Amino acid sequence: MARTAGSHAETTGPRVRAAAQRLIARHGYAAVSMRQIAAEVGVQAGALYLYTPDKQTLLFDLMRLHMEELLAACEALPEPCDPRAALAQFARFHIGYHIDRPEAVFIAYMELRNLSPENFAVIEGLRRRYEERLEAILRAGTAVGVFALPDLRLATRAIIAMLTGVTHWFRDMGPMGRDEVADQYAEMVLKTASAR
Question: Are 171 and 90 in the same domain?
């Protein structure tokens, strides 16, 4: 099938991913067709297969790219020696990074069930790597007695869920700015983890 006039691989590929992300976040993976994605981009449906072999691969690529970029940004952070400072930094980073990416966050959490087992295993591995960053901070703080957490894995998941929840309700026009929200969440996380 002929490529639509003005369509170029280096610009259309990212547009396909952006349209898929927008539509899947709005309607859900099962409700979105390749034809809808093509219409959103302005190309023939058959042209999508120049950029992705199928819808499953497109979903997987969206999740994988989100997780790889998240990990790269997290791994670039300086590592404070003090566990309390490290935990506050992680909380602020997580909120700051995710608050601008609500569609990617929604897909990364809500569409896991639609991944094939092989693709799920890859994404779960990337998620586990990210969780291990936080778990290492909690373990270090517990070892020196500044944190009191009986189950580090459970605490890790609870903290990430709490921080990620900001993307569901935060709006820039709200009464609190993103820095204030991040600071208050960091304080709540510290209080949750701290030894009495």
Answer: yes
Question: Which domain, by its residues, includes 45?
Answer: 9-52
Residues 120 and 60: beta-carbon distance below 8 Å: no
Question: Which pTM does this prediction carry?
Answer: 0.87
- Domain membership of residue 1 (yes or no) is no
pLDDT, tens digit, 9 for 90 and up, residues 41-83: 988 888 888 888 999 999 999 999 999 999 999 999 998 989 9
* Pair 95, 106: CB distance under 8 Å: no
